[in-house]
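re the bet — no i am not wrong, look at it urself. input seq straight from the record:
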Amino acid sequence: MKQVTNETIGCFIGWRDGCLNLATMKKIWIIGVALSLCGLTHATTINVLSSATLNGTYAYTDGVGITLTAGQSITTAEIDWTNVKLTSSGTGKLYTDLINSTTTGLKRYTDNDSAGDYLTTKFSAGNITSVGTASFLSGTALTFSYLLNTTELAALNSYLTSGKGVFNIGFDPDCTYTVGGLSFIYTVGGSQPHGGSVPDGATTALLMIVGLAGVEMFRRKFAVGS
């Protein structure tokens, strides 16, 4: 009768003489954890602007559409500006907002380069959320991100609900800029109608690996004992 030791614990794949050694089990565990972490960090990127010029004469909004199923919401989100350069002389500011609007595509509002965030005068307080203001020196290029906090995420999800899956990113440049890119990156979480968490595919795979390994280990232990 073969003795079951730490080096000959049974599992569900990779048999060697009817058993799987501990080193291989560790590899399976690491792979499962890696798959789970990949699934948990999966994010979707929407490119809003690419190689654009923002004229200080205008303030802009751009519609973003996101399809969510019942019970889902945005759990993390960030707005990324890439290679933004002030081409006017002196100093300038670039304001970024979330806006409750169903407008699609890029829209501009004439503000004649007035100081401050012009969009706060076009939308009521309940329909605009300021995300941040970046300051520039002439000729300086900046790359920066805004990670939405809890309050901003709540506003975003509210806008998506009222806008039936559409919200706007607003940006008002004081002075003129060239922009390498503007993107919106987000992750989605959800629940079943009864409130249960919906596991992603990677998490499900990990649970299967752990569960099957445990079942086979105990099955072989009791088989040897009998």
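see?? Confidence is low (pLDDT under 50) at residues 1-18, 35-41, 192-198. told u. also DSSP finds four helices and nine strands in the chain. so pay up
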